[in-house]
Amino acid sequence: MATKRDYGKMTPLQAAGCLRERRRDLTESRRLVDTPGAIVAAARKLFERQGVRATSVASIAREANVTRELVYYHFANRNGVIEAVIDDYVEDLVESVRSCAQCWCNGRFS
């Protein structure tokens, strides 16, 4: 469920202040699948290995085994990829908290 966003001539700092879509419910997954999911997984791997600043869209495309144009098809710009990776980290955190809460509710940590 990748969304294209056009920030026009805004700087990344100004674009970061734009409102993002809010999740209706914590049970609603925001994981990307298929090609966008592969792109996010490749970006996350590269960001963890070499850092966000040192990772280019071309290197993300190479790692995901897609063309650079396909990355831009699914994500309006590099910031869109970064935002999707952050969403992926948040999804991991939510899943961890949810599973931990289930353990507490089921009395495993009593």
From TrEMBL:
UniProt cross-references to PROSITE patterns, sorted A to Z: HTH_TETR_2 (PS50977)
Swiss-Prot/TrEMBL keywords: DNA-binding, Transcription, Transcription regulation
Signal peptide as annotated in the record: none
Record bears the keyword Transcription: yes
Pfam families: TetR_N
Keyword DNA-binding: yes
Protein name stated in the entry: HTH tetR-type domain-containing protein
Organism placement in taxonomy: Bacteria, Bacillati, Actinomycetota, Coriobacteriia, Eggerthellales
Residue ranges flagged as DNA-binding region: 56-75
GO MF assignments: DNA-binding transcription factor activity; transcription cis-regulatory region binding
Organism: Adlercreutzia caecimuris B7
